[in-house]
Amino acid sequence: xxxxxxxxxxxxxxxxxxxxxxxxxxxxxxxxxxxxxxxxxxxxxxxxxxxxxxxxxxxxxxxxxxxxxxxxxxxxxxxxxxxxxxxxxxxxxxxxxxxxxxxxxxxxxxxxxxxxxxxxxxxxxxxxxxxxxxxxxxxxxxxxxxxxxxxxxxxxxxxxxxxxxxxxxxxxxxxxxxxxxxxx
Length: 184
Hints:
Layout: H1 3-8, E1 19-22, E2 25-28, H2 34-54, E3 59-62, E4 81-84, E5 97-104, H3 109-119, E6 127-132, E7 137-142, E8 154-157, E9 161-164, E10 169-172
Parallel strand pairs: 5-6
Antiparallel strand pairs: 1-2, 3-4, 4-5, 6-7, 7-8, 9-10
């Protein structure tokens, strides 16, 4: 299936399941756990509030459509959260995301990691954050000034300060987990 075919496709699925296009194949997205939902909400609140306080054009989007640069004719991926500084549009795809955030769950970790590497092909993306849903840990990939990506992500734990340079945001990683059962 091509990207235009996917965007006009009717899955005829009454369950409300979301779909991605992965290398030409529609792939159903598994529903998230309570922890996944809590993380997505809390991260969204913290980053959204930060962007409002900063002013400017950047905005946070939940479950936006993202098209990687490589094999763009047959891929439409859906991260948990994204930040873009492009003007709002009526389109189905987010233009020029600068930050993409995925929440890693055991049921979809392989697919999520495949998405993360696809995101590295998008020229506007500066940082990619993968937040674990089973422990207080995150993986941060940050593009180097020369445009390359590191071989391995920076690993952060609960007490570490997470800095998202592309939006001048910093907080203890534990703040993302405030509304989860992982807080002791």
